[in-house]
Amino acid sequence: MAKDPAVLFYTQDFLVGTMTMSYEQKGKYITLLCLQHQKGKLTLKELQSILNEEDIEVAEKFIKESDGFYYNQKLKFESERRKNYSESRRKNLMNKHKNSHMVTHINSHLETGTGTETVTGNKTEIEIENETSITSKYSTEDNKIDFDKLYEVFNNVK
Question: What are phi and psi of 149, to 5 degrees?
């Protein structure tokens, strides 16, 4: 599965948890949270490159694991919770619509996928394949509105 580009950010929790920090420390803290979200864990070197001796309050927001890496417990929890929720939505969708083109459509919002679009005349075929190896090929010709017919009907209505 692709890396989730977002995590839920609870503004009240951030404001309350950083109330006694300076604006500079808040900036360092949010930067470290973003870095952790991208990498999963932080090294001591990464913490030291952003923090100094005066940023003890920020450093205390990160826990050292037995493997020597650091992480913020709340961010780790929220990242895992979102990952589990997205996975459960994807599994539910797969079970409900095994042969539906909607599986691929919705999966494209949950995961990074690649796709191709082929236009021949007035017919468009879209093929999408993502990391779950679901392939959907369908024509959008049936979904297009025939504006000439619509215009003709509209003009005949009195």
Answer: -65, -40
CA separation for the pair 101, 95 (Å, rounded): 13
CB 33 within 8 A of CB 72: yes
**Closest by alpha carbon to 55, among 30, 24, 34, 33?**
24
50 vs 72: CA distance, rounded Å: 15
Cβ neighbours of 83 (radius 10 Å) = 14
Q: Is 139 left (phi over 0), alpha (psi -120 to 50) or beta?
A: beta
Q: Is the pTM of this model over 0.70?
A: no
3-class SS at 34?
helix
Per-residue pLDDT of 98-115, as tens digits, reads 655 555 666 565 555 455
